[in-house]
Amino acid sequence: MQEVLERPVTTVAEAPVDKNKGKVKKVLVICSKGKLEDVYAALVMANGALMEGIQAKMFFTFFGLEAITKKGADHLHTATVGNPAFMPGMPTVLAGLPGFEAFASYMMKKEMDKLDMPHVTEFFQMIEAGGGEIYACRLAADMFHLKKEDFVPEVKDIITVGDMYALAEGEGTQIIFI
Amino acid sequence: METLTYNGTQIEVNAEGYLKDMNQWTPELAREMASKENIELTDKHFDVLNWLRAKQAEGTPLSIRKIGNSGLVDIKQFYALFPGGPLKISSKIAGIPKPASCI
């Protein structure tokens, strides 16, 4: 048994990689959630792609639409209830008290400011400046009665799911769903 | 150890081509490095490179957002000056380490 364990193990990470093959050339980040942390994950990944010279498109759907509304973009909250990783040990009853979620979100935004993280609307400006494109989902927009003028100016269009897949066309595209 | 020879001087770089000592940088070396990225440096490029070097010397962590707020260029212009990954490419040409920034 000992002998087996001592044999050198080739891990995936050590396998030689041909950098020219399978290179990520484009990402399509789909954001279907409207919680602060989910929206930021989408924004950081899209912007991070642009920083690496990778094309980035964003598609916001369902509760993710809240993030691209003029009213909601800079007022997103983190969930304090139903979020076991948030302050482990915090009783759900307390986390659900009025004002608690607003307070937790305020604290989280304060920490983000310390890290020089832009606000959501500024992030959209950065992504657009870097050549990224932002779209809203037609079906969800109809459902929530949202129109183009309700969205931040960086939203290019309200498109169907078919149009969304067209955005992902081309070799080397990765679709990320949040 | 990787080196880059310029004007008969050996310049140490890391595996990704970033200078190990930012004091070995010269504007001429920057032009040479930029040509490898298919960039022809203008005064505007040098404004950004000098700003990056000054911030690096101060020990300020660099990010695209900070460059956008520098007053020199906006983010769109920055992407246009150094296409294909502006922060890492400009840092390489500026002779400073690759910024470890996610934003």
What is the strand and helix layout of this fold?
The complex is a heterodimer of chains A (178) and B (103).
Chain A lengths: L1 H5 L19 E6 L4 H16 L3 E6 L31 H4 L4 H15 L5 H10 L3 E5 H6 L11 E5 L1 H7 L5 E5 L1
Parallel strand pairs in A: 1-2, 1-5, 2-3, 3-4
Chain B lengths: L1 E5 L2 E5 L13 H10 L6 H16 L5 H5 L6 H7 L4 H8 L10
Antiparallel strand pairs in B: 1-2
Structural class by sheet pairing and helices of chain B: mainly alpha
Please write the string of helix (H) and strand (E) elements of chain A.
HEHEHHHEHEHE
The strands making up the biggest β-sheet of chain A line up spatially as: 4-3-2-1-5
Q: Which ranges of chain A are low-confidence, i.e. pLDDT below 50, for 5 or more consecutive residues?
A: none
Q: Which sequence of SSEs, written as H and E, runs from N to C of chain B?
A: EEHHHHH
**Topology, number of strands of chain A:** 5
What is the spatial order of strands in the main beta sheet of chain B? 1-2
Helix % of chain B is: 40-55%
- Rg on CA atoms of chain A, Å: 20 Å
Q: Class by helix and strand content of chain A? A: alpha/beta
Provide the CATH architecture of one domain in chain A. 3-Layer(aba) Sandwich
- Any idea of the CATH topology of one domain in chain A? Hypothetical Protein Ychn, Chain: A
| CATH H-tier superfamily of one domain in chain A | DsrEFH-like
Name some characteristics of this structure.
heterodimer; A: 178 residues; alpha/beta; five-stranded parallel β-sheet; 5 strands; 15% strand; B: 103 residues; mainly alpha; two-stranded antiparallel sheet; 45% helix
Explain what the structure shows.
Chain A is an alpha/beta fold. Chain A has a domain at 25-77 and 121-177: Hypothetical Protein Ychn, Chain: A (3-Layer(aba) Sandwich), CATH 3.40.1260.10. Chain A is built from seven helices and five strands. A five-stranded parallel β-sheet of chain A has the order 4-3-2-1-5. In chain A, helix 6 links the parallel strand 3 and strand 4. In chain A, helix 2 packs parallel to helix 5 (120-129). Chain A is globular, with a radius of gyration of 20 Å. Chain B has one domain. Chain B has a two-stranded antiparallel sheet with strand order 1-2. In chain B, a hairpin with a 2-residue loop joins strand 1 (2-6) and strand 2. The N and C termini of chain B lie far apart (30 Å). The A-B interface holds A 44, 47-48, 50-53, 115-118, 122, 125-126, 129-131 and B 61, 63-66, 68, 74-76, 79, 83-88, 101-103.
